[in-house]
Design brief:
With about 120 residues, the chain is α/β, with parallel strands linked by helices. It has a single domain, classed as Glutaredoxin, CATH 3.40.30.10. Helices cover about 35% and strands about 25% of the residues. The protein is built from four helices and six strands. Strands 1-2-4-3-5-6 form a six-stranded mixed beta sheet, sandwiched between helices. Helix 2 packs across helix 4. It starts with a strand and ends with a helix. About 35% of the residues are buried.
Length: about 120
């Protein structure tokens, strides 16, 4: 389960578990404090989204950057900003800019780790 919120102190290191973004302010804090972010947009009751939880845990522990989950139904302005049309939608951000997107269902950990590693260095 995603329990950490974006504003928890991490001693300058990315959290090693997914964080939950509860509003736009959490998102803005995350982007200011972390260069590389994987955002997962979900909705309550989404079966595929639920199956992604353990995958995102693996990604958070093994990949560079921060993994964050946003409930699109609870933070619709953020979902609109990223033009989320289906869930789960996963977006990789580098310095606040979208550099990769996965909006076609379940993604294996290897795919997401590769995407984050690709964009970790320029």
């Amino acid at each position: 389960m995603t329990e950490t919120i974006a504003s928890e102190p991490t001693d300058g290191q990315p959290p090693r578990k997914p964080v939950q973004l509860n509003d736009v302010d959490d998102y803005e804090d995350l982007i200011v404090n972390h260069d590389l972010v994987l955002l997962e947009f979900v909705t309550s009751g989404c079966g595929i989204c639920g199956s992604m939880e353990p995958v995102l845990g693996v990604v958070a522990r093994s990949a560079p950057g921060v993994v964050a989950t946003v409930n699109a139904g609870l933070v619709p302005e953020l979902a609109a900003e990223f033009d989320v049309q289906s869930v789960p939608t996963l977006v990789v951000l580098r310095d606040g800019e979208e550099v990769a997107r996965f909006d076609d269902g379940f993604q294996p950990a290897e795919t997401l780790v590769d995407a984050l590693e690709t964009h970790a260095t320029r």
